[in-house]
Amino acid sequence: MVVREDRKEQIIDKAVAIFAEKGYYKATTALVARAAGVTQPYVFHFFANKEELFKAVIDKSINRIYEGFMKAEGSGEQVLGKMAAAFDEVMASNRDEIVMVMQAHAISEPVIREHVREKFRLIHETIVANFEKGGVPDARNAASQFLATGLLLTVAEVLQLPEILCLPDISEYSANITNRK
User: Fold this and answer.
1) Could you tell me if 36 and 10 are in contact, meaning their C-beta atoms sit under 8 angstroms apart?
2) Which positions ≥6 away from 74 have C-beta within 8 Å?
3) What DSSP assignment string belongs to 21-76?
4) What value does the mean pLDDT of the chain take?
5) In the prediction, which pLDDT does 168 show?
6) Under a CB-based contact definition with an 8 Å cutoff, are residues 73 and 82 in contact?
7) How is the chain split among helix, strand and coil, in percent rounded to 5?
8) How many CB atoms are closer than 10 A to CB 50?
């Protein structure tokens, strides 16, 4: 059923923009349906409720980051640079998805909170595995620093606050993470 799957993807794509703009609580399935050019019951044909739609949106967004990180291989500095480049690419080409990920941890609905927790855990473990393969000392701590830096970069980008970024350039940052004893 290519047409149905295409339509489902179209709904998810439109939902990304609606959730990114309005946030979870102000976004409605009616707004998503209107943006996708379908009826609200048609949205419910694919997704039982707004929570399920949001989870599908988060899955798409996190999976894009995950896939970029999974391609990153090499030594410590190389893997760090490749993951940073992958994140930059997602930010440049799919900004609304990054905004979604940034907002997702603040949603208090238990089903969503647990889903987002698992997605963030997956990303962190992927970074840890990449750093371990690349020989980065204290890979778990370095992964937490990398993730925290990514979140700060996202906040600075979304809020258009570059002045909060008092980070060294990527090569100095990379050397600090990969050469830690």
Assistant:
1) yes
2) 82, 134
3) HHHHHH--HHHHHHHHTS-HHHHHHH-SSHHHHHHHHHHHHHHHHHHHHHT--SSH
4) 87
5) 61
6) yes
7) 80, 0, 20
8) 20
